[in-house]
Amino acid sequence: MPTEQDESRLARRLGTGDAIVIGLGSMIGAGVFAAFGPAARAAGAGLVIGLGVAAVIAYCNAVASAQLAAVYPTSGGTYVYGRERLGAWWGFAAGWAFVIGKTASCAAMALTFASYAVPGPWWAQRLVGVAAVLALAGLNYRGVSKTATLTRVLVGLTLIALAVVVVGIWAGGRARVANLDGWASLTAGGGLHGVLQAAGLLFFAFAGYARIATMGEEVRNPAHTIPRAIPTALAITVAVYLVVALSALSAGGPGVLAHASSPLTAAVQAAGAGGVAPAVRIGGAVASLGALLALIAGIGRTSLAMARNGDLPASLAAVHPRFRVPHHAELALAAIVSVLVLTTDLRGVIGFSSFGVLVYYGIANAAAFTQPREQRRWPRALNVLGICGCVVLALSLPAASVVAGAVVLALGLVGRVLLGPPHASGLSADLRKAGDQS
Questions:
Q1: Contact 287, 30 (CB under 8 A)
Q2: Any idea what the Cα angle at residue 315 is, between residues 311 and 317, rounded to 5°?
């Protein structure tokens, strides 16, 4: 007979392969089709260097998340780690930054999907965007296994589309390695600051690797699975992004990417391979769906954890008795994102989302730094590098993104002060013990 605690827990149904695919689905998304444009405007061909910087910081953040998730295999990711290692306020700051930034990203991904899938009028795109949100929320509602299955399909289609783009660029006959500008890229564009800003913007495209940790309560044998899945998914993504970035720059130089609303479409046209442009459209639509699917799953689990501890309304902590998913949290998210899709255009929130995610991972590194020797899998030096990197990249983002992110973060903290410290349910500790026993 299931106990009350069992009824409030999510089911452990994800293996290592599922976890890697969910990580890939979170990273190899619409970011690769959109982030190269603003990164090229900031740094020119130095965006490749920015990509490398973003990858190093992402690795530091990834291993911190993996190390923490192995010990705290519960829903919520850094929200839980911050509470357990640093205190309730740090956890709230991480959770709030994640939920607000990623909710905006959900709306952006829905609109991005609609813009690729429906070349028609704006109102049709809005309706298609809402339909995508509701359909994927409904799929998530049916259980995490179905989420993982669809993610496999979407990741496979996205990788095929990117492969067609790369092959088309080099087969077009106009791509030149000289377009990379060599060492001149270090001083081109915005110089060092431009490279760092490009790294911060490109971090948006990496920021899904910890979705595996956020869903830690649904992973089988988390102490073994999560530390393997997160670095593996990140390594695959870095390799894919590097090949795509070098190919796109070689097609026509950074100027072509910087002034294009669809950088990869501009790249294939500049390379003389305009015939494969439909592959970019299909890939962008599919990748947007994959990112949106992973975002809904991740935000739902973080909202669940925050509700369990009183940082969000308690009703969001409900777990469906049959499908074992946080159904109230996912329904609320679908409603909010649908309203945003119908009323705003958030496709320009890359910088805002990056700011929130960098705050989130800065706290993850700080939490990992406090772990004792017996819980450590990687050296503390990586945590220090991760914290410093998150701070530098966050402050290097466009000023409007930094101000907007800081204001929203401050509003959340002020709201928590006015409402008073919540009373934790203690469920996270119970779940952690259960995870240690699994």
A1: yes
A2: 70
Give 294-344 as a 3 state SS string.
Answer: HHHHHHHHHHHHHHHCCCCCHHHHCCCCCCCCCHHHHHHHHHHHHHHHHHC
**What is each CA distance from 288 to 6, 140, 264, 329, in whole angstroms?**
34, 16, 14, 21
* C-alpha angle 58-375-434 in degrees, rounded to nearest 5: 100
Question: How far, in Å, CA of 236 to CA of 241, rounded?
Answer: 9
- Alpha carbons 341 and 358: distance in angstroms, whole number: 24
The pTM is what? 0.82
CATH architecture type of domain 15-430: Up-down Bundle (1.20)
> What's the pLDDT tens digit per position in 182-215?
556 555 556 888 899 999 888 877 777 766 766 6
Q: Per-residue pLDDT tens for 109-147?
A: 888 888 888 877 889 999 999 999 999 998 877 765 666
Residue spans per domain, the chain: 15-430
- Is 201 within 8 Å of 56 (Cβ atoms)? no
Q: What is the spatial distance between Cα 283 and Cα 163, in angstroms, rounded to a whole number? A: 10
Could you give the CA distance from residue 137 to residue 20 in angstroms, rounded to a whole number? 21
Distance between CA atoms of residues 283 and 97, nearest Å: 29
DSSP state of 186: G
Roughly what angle, to the nearest 10 degrees, separates helices 78-85 and 47-71?
A: 60
Kindly give the residue spans of alpha helices, DSSP state H, lying in 44-87.
Answer: 47-71, 78-85
